[in-house]
C-alpha cells in the first residue's frame, strides 16, 4: 500500500537505511564492478554492507556540519563519477538535512555551461565531490562567486567514520521538505530542477515496490547514471527501501560493451534489470552466440523498459537473441514515468507478457483515434503501427486523458494529453512559480491539483498506450532535447543558411525515433550553393553541440519554411511535409539506412597490430592516423573510400557520444590497451589521438631505435576540465555562461 504521508509516523529514506543497517549481516549490499578485466568473475569490485554505507554517509554529514554555514535545506551539488562514493555523498547530504543536487562531472564546454547554470539556478551553498575532482572544480566554484568545494573522507572506501565520533542521528525530515533537486536532461541552456519531496520519494518507492512485486529476495543489476531519475531512484534507492542487494557498473562500460552488463546480471543472478528502449536495442545488436558463453539470464523476472518510446520490434529482437540464454518474454515490463512524478507513473503486473497493439497509423496520427489494424499486412504496407501497452496507473495515482483545448476528458480509445494527480507528483520546478502554476495546478472535473504532462496517449481495454508528445520535445536514447536549441545550432552553422529559419523534429525511421532537420537557404546561399559543404556543416553542428546524429537534412528555397502568422516554426508541418514530399527542397541528405548504432566492422583482413608491425617504424604514427581515419569513416558512415580530415574534431565529423564510446572500445580491442573513458574527449581529433596512442603503444610495437619517441608524461587528473576552463575564461569573466 502507498504509505500514509502525514507527519506523524513518517519514515524518510534515511530512516530506511538506518533500519537496513540495524539488520545488516555484514554481506555486501551494494557492489560496484570495475570494467578492467576480461570477465566480470575475474574483475574487481567495491562492496559495502548497509552498515558501512550508513557509517560513510554519516561521515559526509559530519563533515558538512563542521562547515558551520551549511544550513538545513541548503542545496549541495553532488559531483561524482560512477561508484559507491556518490551513494554515501547523497545520503550524507540527507543525514545533514541539506538538499543534494546530483550532476555529472563537466567534461566539455557545453557541460561546464550546463553545470554553471544548475549551480546558479539552484543557489547552491557548495559542492561535495570525489577527491580527484576537488581541485579542478574549485575554479568553477569561484566562477559562481560563493560556496565551498568539499571532498569528504567517505568518498574513499578505506576511510570509515572518524575515530572517537559518535554516530550521527539523522536530521528530522518531513514529507513536505524537498529531498533533492532532479535537473531535467532537456535543454542544455535551461535545465529545470524538479523539487522531489521526501513524501514524493517514499510514495513513489512504495508504488514501484508494489507494482514490481519487490521483496528482500530480489537482486538487481544497474548501469544507469546515478544523476538520472531512473538510475537514482530505482537503481540506488529502491534497494535501500526494499532491502535487497544491487550490483552496479558505469554507464560508459555498458555503452562500450553492453554484453558485459548482461554478464553482470548473470553473475549476480539478478532478478531485476532495466533501462530505456535503446539499451535493449544496443544489447540485441551486439548479440552473438560465440560472444556469450555461459550467460544465464533465467533469474530475471523484471526487465523494465521506460524513459523513451518503447518499440515492440526491439522487445522481440532482444527476446529472440537472449531466449537461448534463459531470458523470458514475460519478464519484459513496459512502463511510463517522468521526473516530475518522481519516476514511475504506470506499469503492468510482474510476469504479465507485454501487450502489443496494432493500430491504423492514419487514424491514430490524423484523427486521434485508436483503430485496430491487421498486423501482418499492415506493418509491411506502412498502414499499421505497433504500440506497447504501459499497464495501469500506479496505486494512488489519478490519471486522465484530456482534450487540451477543452480541458475535458476524452473517450476510451481517443488520444488525449495525459494529466496526473497523486502523492508522487512533485510540487514543481525550483524557482519557476509561473511555470508551476501553468503546469502543476490545473483543474479537471472541478478538482484542482492536476499536472499536465505534455504527453499524448489513450486508454483501451484497461491498458495505457503512449503515442507521442503534445509539445515538440525530442527524446533520443532517453535524453530530452529541445528543438529550438538544435535549430539555433543549425542555422548558425553556415553562412548560406537563413538566420532563424530552421525546423528540427523527431522523425521515425525504421521504427527508431531520430532527428530530422529542414533549413532555409538565403538567396545568396541558393545562388552559390555548395550543398555537400552546407549539409556537412549542419551534421557537424548537431553532433558537436548536442551529441546527436541527424538522420535527414533538407535544404529549402528561401521563404518556404512552414511558419505561423506570428513567425513561429511549424515543426509538425515541417515533419509532415518532409514525409509527404510537399516541401520546396533544393538538396537532401539521408543517413544510410540500417541500425541505430554503427554496425560492427568486418573482421576480414589484418588487424591494427599486424598492420603496425608490418609498417616501418618511422611511418607507424601515420599508420595509426590511417587506422583511426578508416574507423571514424565507418562510424560516420561516409562514402566508401572517403577518409575524414585528421585535424577535424570528432563531433565535427558527425559522431555522437555513443559512436565515440564504440571507437574507444575498438582501440582497446585492437591495441590491447586499457583506456580512460575520457581519453577521446581529451584528444578530440584523429591527429591528436593518433599522436597520443603512438606514445603509449610505440614501446611495445617498435623495437628500440633512435627514432623512437619518449613516453609522454601522464596528464594530470581531469585535464579536460582544465582545458575547457581556459577556453571559457573570457566567457566566465563576462558572466554570460549558463
* N→C terminal distance: 43 Å
For this structure, the quaternary state is single chain
Structural class call reads alpha/beta
- The number of distinct β-strands equals 29
* Share of helical residues: 25-40%
Helix tally equals 25
Global morphology: globular
Runs in which pLDDT lies below 50 for 5 or more consecutive residues are: 154-158, 594-604, 699-738
Question: What's the rounded overall pLDDT mean?
Answer: 83
Radius of gyration: 26 Å
Proportion of beta-strand residues = 15-25%
Give the biggest sheet: 6 strands, antiparallel
Summed up, what is this model?
The protein is α/β, with parallel strands linked by helices and 738 residues long.
Protein described:
Keywords: Fatty acid metabolism, Ligase, Lipid metabolism, Metal-binding, Phosphopantetheine, Phosphoprotein. Pfam families: AMP-binding, AMP-dom_DIP2-like, PP-binding. Belongs to the ATP-dependent AMP-binding enzyme family. This is Siderophore biosynthesis protein. The chain has 25 helices and 29 strands. It is globular and about 75 Å long. It is 36% helix and 21% strand. The C terminus is likely disordered. The strands form 8 sheets. Strands 18, 19, 20, 21, 22 and 23 form a 6-stranded antiparallel beta sheet that branches. Strands 11-12-13-14-17 form a 5-stranded mixed beta sheet, sandwiched between helices. It has 738 residues and is an alpha/beta fold.
Amino acid at each position: 500500500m502507498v504509505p500514509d504521508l502525514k507527519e506523524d509516523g513518517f519514515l524518510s529514506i534515511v530512516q530506511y537505511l538506518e533500519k537496513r543497517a540495524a539488520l545488516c549481516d555484514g554481506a555486501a549490499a551494494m557492489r560496484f564492478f570495475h570494467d578492467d578485466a576480461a570477465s566480470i568473475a575475474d574483475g574487481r569490485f567495491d562492496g559495502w554492507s548497509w552498515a558501512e554505507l550508513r557509517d560513510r554517509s554519516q561521515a559526509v554529514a559530519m563533515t558538512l556540519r563542521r562547515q558551520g554555514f551549511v544550513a538545513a535545506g541548503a542545496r549541495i551539488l553532488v559531483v561524482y563519477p560512477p561508484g559507491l562514493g556518490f551513494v554515501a555523498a547523497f545520503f550524507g547530504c540527507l543525514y545533514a538535512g541539506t538538499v543534494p543536487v546530483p550532476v555529472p562531472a563537466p567534461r566539455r564546454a557545453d557541460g561546464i555551461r550546463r553545470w554553471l547554470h544548475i549551480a546558479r539556478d539552484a543557489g547552491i551553498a557548495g559542492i561535495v565531490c570525489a577527491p580527484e575532482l576537488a581541485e579542478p572544480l574549485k575554479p568553477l566554484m569561484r566562477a559562481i562567486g560563493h560556496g565551498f568545494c568539499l571532498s569528504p573522507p567517505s568518498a574513499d572506501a578505506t576511510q570509515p567514520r572518524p575515530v572517537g565520533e559518535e554516530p550521527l542521528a539523522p536530521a528530522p525530515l518531513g514529507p513536505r521538505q524537498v529531498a533533492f533537486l532532479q535537473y531535467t536532461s532537456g535543454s542544455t541552456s535551461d535545465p529545470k530542477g524538479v523539487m522531489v519531496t521526501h513524501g514524493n520519494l517514499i510514495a513513489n518507492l512504495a508504488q514501484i515496490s508494489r507494482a514490481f512485486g519487490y521483496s528482500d529476495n530480489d537482486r538487481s543489476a544497474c548501469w544507469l547514471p546515478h544523476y538520472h531519475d531512473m538510475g537514482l531512484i530505482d537503481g540506488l534507492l529502491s534497494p535501500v527501501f526494499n532491502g535487497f542487494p544491487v550490483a552496479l557498473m558505469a554507464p560508459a562500460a555498458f555503452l562500450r560493451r553492453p554484453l558485459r552488463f548482461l554478464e553482470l546480471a548473470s553473475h549476480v543472478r539478478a532478478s531485476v534489470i532495466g533501462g530505456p528502449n535503446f539499451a535493449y536495442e544496443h544489447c540485441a545488436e551486439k548479440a552473438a552466440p560465440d560472444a556469450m558463453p555461459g550467460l544465464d539470464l533465467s533469474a530475471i523476472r523484471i526487465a523494465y523498459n521506460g524513459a523513451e518510446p518503447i518499440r515492440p520490434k526491439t522487445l522481440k529482437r532482444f527476446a529472440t537473441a537472449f531466449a537461448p540464454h534463459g531470458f523470458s518474454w514475460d519478464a519484459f515490463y513496459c512502463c511510463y514515468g517522468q521526473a516530475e512524478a518522481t519516476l514511475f507513473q504506470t506499469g503492468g503486473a510482474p510476469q504479465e507478457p507485454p501487450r502489443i497493439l496494432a493500430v491504423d497509423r492514419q487514424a491514430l496520427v490524423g484523427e486521434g483515434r485508436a483503430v485496430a489494424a491487421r498486423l501482418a499486412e499492415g506493418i509491411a504496407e506502412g498502414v499499421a503501427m505497433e504500440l506497447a501497452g504501459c499497464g495501469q496507473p500506479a496505486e494512488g495515482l489519478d490519471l486522465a486523458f484530456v482534450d487540451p483545448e477543452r480541458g475535458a476528458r476524452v473517450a476510451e480509445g481517443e488520444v488525449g494529453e495525459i494529466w496526473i494527480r497523486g502523492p508522487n507528483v512533485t510540487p514543481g520546478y525550483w524557482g519557476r512559480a509561473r511555470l508551476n502554476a501553468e503546469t502543476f495546478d490545473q483543474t479537471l472535473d472541478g478538482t484542482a491539483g492536476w499536472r499536465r504532462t505534455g504527453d499524448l496517449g489513450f486508454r483501451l481495454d484497461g491498458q495505457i498506450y503512449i503515442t507521442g508528445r503534445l509539445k515538440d520535445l525530442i527524446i533520443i536514447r532517453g535524453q530530452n532535447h529541445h528543438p529550438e536549441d538544435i535549430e539555433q545550432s543549425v542555422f548558425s552553422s553556415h553562412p548560406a543558411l537563413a538566420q532563424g529559419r530552421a525546423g528540427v523534429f523527431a522523425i521515425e525511421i525504421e521504427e527508431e525515433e531520430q532527428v530530422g532537420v529542414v533549413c532555409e537557404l538565403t538567396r545568396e546561399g541558393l545562388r552559390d550553393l555548395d550543398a555537400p559543404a552546407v549539409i556537412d556543416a549542419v551534421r557537424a553542428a548537431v553532433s558537436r553541440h548536442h551529441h546527436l546524429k541527424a538522420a535527414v537534412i533538407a535544404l529549402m528555397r528561401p521563404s518556404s519554411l512552414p511558419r505561423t502568422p506570428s513567425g513561429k516554426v511549424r515543426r509538425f508541418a515541417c515533419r509532415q511535409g518532409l514525409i509527404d514530399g510537399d516541401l520546396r527542397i533544393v538538396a537532401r541528405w539521408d543517413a544510410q539506412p540500417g541500425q541505430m548504432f554503427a554496425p560492427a566492422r568486418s573482421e576480414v583482413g589484418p588487424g591494427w597490430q599486424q598492420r603496425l608491425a608490418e609498417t616501418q617504424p618511422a611511418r607507424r604514427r601515420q599508420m595509426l592516423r590511417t587506422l583511426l581515419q578508416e574507423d571514424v569513416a565507418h562510424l560516420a558512415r561516409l562514402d566508401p573510400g572517403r577518409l575524414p580530415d585528421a585535424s577535424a574534431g570528432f563531433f565535427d565529423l558527425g559522431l555522437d557520444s555513443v559512436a565515440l564510446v564504440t571507437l574507444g572500445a575498438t582501440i582497446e580491442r585492437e591495441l590491447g590497451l586499457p583506456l580512460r573513458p575520457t581519453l577521446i574527449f581529451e584528444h578530440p581529433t584523429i591527429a591528436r589521438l593518433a599522436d597520443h596512442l603512438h606514445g603509449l603503444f610505440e614501446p611495445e610495437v617498435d623495437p628500440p631505435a633512435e627514432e623512437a619517441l619518449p613516453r609522454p608524461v601522464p596528464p594530470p587528473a581531469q585535464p579536460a576540465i582544465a582545458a575547457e576552463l581556459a577556453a571559457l575564461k573570457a566567457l566566465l569573466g563576462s558572466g554570460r555562461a549558463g
